[in-house]
Amino acid sequence: MSSSISFNPMLTTSAADTFLLSTAGYTQGDFLADPAARMWLVEGQVVNTASAPLWAGIPVTETTPASGATTSSTPTIAAATAETNITAFTVANQAYAGVIVPGSTAPLWYAGMTMSYLRLGSNARIVVAVDSGAVSALTGAATDVTVYWDFVNNALTNSGSTALPVKFLGIDSNSKVFTYSSGSATWSVGSVAIIQI
User: Fold this and answer.
1) pTM of the predicted model, to two decimals?
2) CA 20 to 30 Å from 173, out of 23, 130, 184, 190?
3) What is the Cα–Cα distance from 88 to 42, expressed in whole angstroms?
4) If 0-12 CB within 10 Å is exposed, 13-18 middle and 19+ buried, where does residue 65 land?
5) pLDDT for 54-76, tens place per residue?
6) Positive or negative torsion for Cα 128, 131, 132, 137
7) What are the Cα distances from residue 155, in Å, to 131, 187, 190?
8) H/E element holding 38?
């Protein structure tokens, strides 16, 4: 009788093809599971004067309802135009009203629609697009690295004028990234960053 066993009882295995490479990665606009951050999920109305739709994983500016508002007490959100007016990031979690228009594969939220978002300071971990030119500089970077937002390409980057008040948590290059162009919204495989806001 031997004092050791002939197999590893702690070995982690999986059935063939249950975790393919194509299922790895993240999706832009998701926030990672966290019971505390989930409680900070807010829903706001896309401002009626929005000239372009919103999508998940971009920074927005939140405006509180007007004093004495009778029609709605819901805050409004609009796409942020500078780092200094970013107050929140949109997310797809529980944002059920997104519309997938003909010729698109990803949901959009238009003026007057409601969308989920998380405010800065919520400590939520969210997934955002990262600029392809910043991937090598941010790969393996410390969590306190300074990051910025590129408003032209709607992506996180490693250079700019005003730093974002977020913690950088990593990069994944095999994820679903959102692309918007001339009214069409599509998903493609690309790089995303995980940030704590």
Assistant:
1) 0.83
2) 184
3) 10
4) middle
5) 999 999 999 987 666 555 678 99
6) negative
7) 5, 14, 12
8) helix 35-38
